Amino acid sequence: QVQLVESGGGLVQAGGSLRLSCAASGRTVSSYALAWFRQPPGKEREFVAVIARGGFSTSIADSVMGRFTISKDAKNTVYLQMNSLKPEDTAVYYCAAGSMPAHVVAFYEYWGLGTQVTVSS
Question: Are residues 56 and 29 in contact, defined by beta-carbon separation less than 8 angstroms?
Fold first, then answer.
């Protein structure tokens, strides 16, 4: 059982930065890879980044590579640092936990409710 609560979303101008947080808790949380997905308006949910359960490896989507980074701390809070934001980054951002650090929605068992990120031009 894993509980995920996102925070840190908001409105930012293009070129700005935001840091999203996901508080992950539960007795089995350390067994899961933790990922960020996003869903732009009118589009399917898409992979952004994932960190493996041991924290030793990360993977990032090509669309945000060089601008976004994923990390987590010892309390299993996962972060998404977003720099050089673009209007096309506007989406609801979701934290997810899954048994494998996959890049597709179907592999994730637990989801937060999401946090809105809006980037103005």
Answer: no
How far apart, in whole angstroms, are the C-alpha atoms of residue 101 and residue 94?
Answer: 15
CA distance 83 to 64: 9
Interval 42-97: pLDDT, tens: 999 999 999 999 888 999 999 999 999 999 999 999 999 999 999 999 999 999 99
Tokens representing 119 are 């980037």
Quote the DSSP letter at residue 106: G
pLDDT for 54 equals 84
Eight-class DSSP state of 97: E
Distances (CA, A) of 26 to 71, 87, 95, 113: 19, 35, 15, 16
Helix (H) or strand (E) holding 72: strand 68-72
